[in-house]
Design brief:
six-stranded parallel beta sheet, 8 strands
Amino acid sequence: MAGRERVVQLLRQLERAACRCPAHSHSYYQASGHTSSGKTTDYAFEMACSNIRYGEGVTREIGMDLLNLGSRNVCLMTDKNLSQLPPLTAVLDSLVKHGVRFKCYDKVRVEPTDASFKEAIDFARKGEFDAYIAVGGGSVIDTCKVANLYDCHPEADFLDFVNAPIGKGKAVTAVLKPLIAVPTTAGTGSETTGVAIFDFESLKAKTGIASRAIKPTLGMVDPLHTLHMPQRVAANSGFDVLCHALESYTALPYSLRSPCPTNPIHRPAYQGSNPISDVWSRHALRIVAKYLKRAVRDPGDLEARSSMHLASVFAGIGFGNAGVHLCHGMSYPIAGHVKTFRAEGYNVDHPLVPHGLSVVLTSPAVFTFTACMCPERHLEAAEILGADVRNAKQGDAGLILSDVLRKILFDLNVDDGLSAVGYTTDDIPALVKGTIPQERVTKLSPRAHTEEDLTDLFEASLKLY
């Protein structure tokens, strides 16, 4: 009981803390114009998404797709865990049936690093491929995107396209080769987006590459593949869907994001919440509310697992254009600084805090903190997820959403906060330091934040229950 009281006390402190940024002291929605920094905010948003094909057994069509593209030498990327499972077998059967020539790269690392990306890039550059296939979760799809990108830029240095401030953040100008993504988890939405995330090992932090140019040509979403996810993988993948939808729906509106690009090629993939992304994010939340627990508890529940596969796509379209914010920004050092924790259900040879878990552990604290900027959206999200908000006050929006999130996590036996995955108060300065470079996403928080705020958020996330 004392632990829960401590959590509630910390959440109330976050909720009451005054927002110190003049740019965020007004209404959540306001006309585009000038911020306090003098930079002009944007006036437009752009929607981009891969083509999506959905259906049970649709993977059998992949060989025909490649023939239709005129592909003669295909790079197939996957990981060791999938190499003997039905999803890859289905792809291989179709390629062989239709006489498609291919080479297989199965060394993708779960939670990729700069080193594992570079190894995949080297394979791609030597292969003279004319198309790519990614069979796996977000790690495989992201690795394949990056291999394709650098294969088409043979003279590029690795940091050229990596997000600033860690990399140079250069715009992609070459036309990439066709990439078909076959997702086998229901979480990342990577089959829809132009984003690839990795651990930058020397900094012990995650960063990535974000460009519409790297999104897959086709996301082949076959719900039969999700039946092979272990229960904890299904849970952590589902938490990623949950946070994608919540963060994109509550992100800073696109019309408040600055600076306004002088050339549309520089408009970021993550643009802020917008009316189109809102539709996808809300719908994804409704599916999560109905099917997440079922999908975790019964691996054979095809309806639930198929629905979560679609929710992953819907949330991917939403956040792939609106962006995410603090949960994801804070998750990157949580994953990057992992010590000895190895998550259940993952067959890996290295310590691992799965991405979805690293994201969701801070969600109660984050949405308590951000609720003051758009309380109506936080209350709507809480209602979709099962909270009774009929008599709720807007000032309680953060705590209401926090409570419903902690109930979901408790019901699904989620580890009790950052302390349960190996972190202590002494680690918080390093976690804060690792969050600061994640401005690509953290700047989309609807509420401005300081290092002191991040410290409080990490402290409030050490224990959940």
